[in-house]
Model the fold of this input.
Amino acid sequence: MSKILRGLVIIFLLGTGVAAAVSVRAQENAPRYFPETGHTIRGKFRAFYEATPDALLLFGYPITEAFTNPQGVEVQYFQRARFEYDPASPANTVRLTPLGQLVYKQEKEHIPANTPPNPTACQHFADTGQQLCYGFLAFWKEHQGAIYLGNPISPLERDGDRLVQYLEYARLEWHPEAGGQGQFVLTNLGEVYFRLNRENPRLLLPQNTAFIGQNTLLEMQVHAFVTKASVSQKDEQTLYIIVRDQKRQPLEGATAAITVHYPDGRSVPYIAPHSTNAYGFTDLTFPVDSSQPGFVEVSVEVTAPQGSLKENTRTSFRIWY
Done:
């Protein structure tokens, strides 16, 4: 091979390598859009998400864009997680917010499951003094729990008719009726902590608001949540409702009928004062008036603008005192 030809080959190979590196960096910096929620991930958060095995199962879809909080930390909420990046940190890495710890501390009632111990089916964690057993332990091992879920911080507990257990970054639920691998699921702690942390609800609004045109409305997707996880017996609660169509686009002009079911057996109906706006968003603030503490279920029925479709959802909160 002549010197000229050899030089051309080297230049070609170097050029290919540089182009590949630039392509990878460009992909990381480019936004990845999730039509399921109308939000994007990009940069370090996208790289972390896509490098995680079973990211959708562990983290869910993004429910906000990335934003900088008052502490100067860049954060982004997902259904089951929150990513953090602190530019002042020497580590220069994306971290998971310890949502399990944060939510566990704010829960005022914990009911132990009191299951009999079985050392042969459990693993003890000396740093937290807790253990994981049976299917909870199997799920933790299968999904690299030490990295993505953290160690257990609570014993096995009962939440209604569910067995649950808190981990540093997550909460694991047992759904035996699902059968097979679907028996164990992660609580949507990203959504829970978004409410507990009193973030701006407008951060949840989808980013893509392009006009849909004359397409027929085939399906509505309704999401409802309250701003306070727990209230007193004489308090005020705000309910937020977001409605999207089959293309995950905001649906304007839908109306919402709400019924609040109190633990003392009373049911109080309301109508949202405004139909959904261009972002598919409406809300209702109502007084909490109950003679006893307990869980309050809020059922929501949304009617499409032309009345052709109806869709239901529900959420809940707790009255403590």
User: Anything to note?
Assistant: The CA atoms of residues 250 and 290 lie 34 Å apart.
